[in-house]
Amino acid sequence: MCAVVNGAASAFDRPASFGILPQIVSASRVQQANALMGLNSRLVGIVGAALGSWLVNSVGAGYALAFDSSTFLVAGVLLLTVAKDAPPLKRESSPLVDFREGWQEVRSRSWLWSLILSFGVFQLAYFPALMVLGPDIARKHLGGAAAWAAIITGELIGGIIGGLVSLKIHAKRPLLLTLFAVVPVVLQLIGFALGWPLAALIACTAFASIGFAIGGTIWSSTLQKLIPTDALSRVSSFDWLGSIALNPIGYALIGPLSAVLGERETMGYAAVLLSLSIFLPMTIPAVRALRIP
User: Which has the minimum average pLDDT: 39-53, 211-225, 236-250, 257-271?
Assistant: First the structure.
């Protein structure tokens, strides 16, 4: 039940915070703000993991969890200070009206709904394959937990590099860059499927993480620059929902499929599905032609 409440709270938090950022940052700095937020979350994740391990070993898991809970209260206070700088939107409506208006904003832009569909298929294939089958392949063929830890370390390093690159990169065609940036994830899954050595998988994972950081920053900045401010949070809700809606299905299917097809074979099919989710949207004229004014 607590996990359900936490998930529901996150569903409210992400669109709201996404809509606040363009109201408190100048338009010319939106991309840098998104890049810094992503970079900060990765750095804090590394520090948090180290601190959590030290707390568990020093004072026990219970006190470590209590300390973790207190950080959410601090985060809430900090968010209140940020919200003061955001000008209030002078509008009143019902949830049904908000839903209808948000859907109209999405369906009126072919580049928007096509990318949301693409992200949904991406989530269906990528994370279930990597996070369920990856550790087991590492255990059986790459040397066990130490190998998987090295792969995850490559992911963290790549994310930091990608965050730094995102601060300066300029996208003439942002949607094409968003899609091309995540192409390395296909090579990553192919590497698992074909039994590449650990060093190659670490490198592929690092490049995939660089692409995630760049693609995520460019996509967020594109929405925040092109979607009207009063509709941004509602559009973000559809983006978030469409992106993760198929994810639970992927996790439910990946185990039975791998039992029938084999782990590496399933990784290969996931790589094919990822390729379709990345390259098919590039055939849509609105995706190829979109530019930031």
Answer: 39-53
The predicted pLDDT at position 272 comes to 95
Rounded CA-CA distance 224/231 in Å is 10
Q: How far are the Cα atoms of 34, 40, 239 from residue 18, in angstroms, in the given order?
A: 10, 16, 11
Domain containing 81 — which CATH number? 1.20.1250.20
Taken as a whole, the chain contains a residue count of 293
Long-range Cβ contacts of 282-286 (<8 Å, 24+ apart): 282/176, 282/179, 284/110, 284/111, 284/114, 286/109, 286/110, 286/111, 286/114
Per the model's pLDDT, the better-predicted residue between 183 and 54 turns out to be 183
As a whole number of angstroms, the distance between CA 50 and CA 119 comes to 31
* Rounded-to-integer distance, Cα 63 and Cα 267, Å: 40
Q: Which residue has the higher pLDDT, 74 or 174?
A: 174
CB–CB of 5/191 below 8 Å? no
Q: How far is CA 18 from the centre of its chain?
A: 13
pTM of the model: 0.84
Name the domain count of the chain: 1
Give the model confidence (pLDDT) of 189-202 as tens digits.
Answer: 999 999 999 999 99
What does the H/E/C string look like for 192-203?
Answer: HHHCCCHHHHHH
Residue 244 sits in which domain range? 2-289
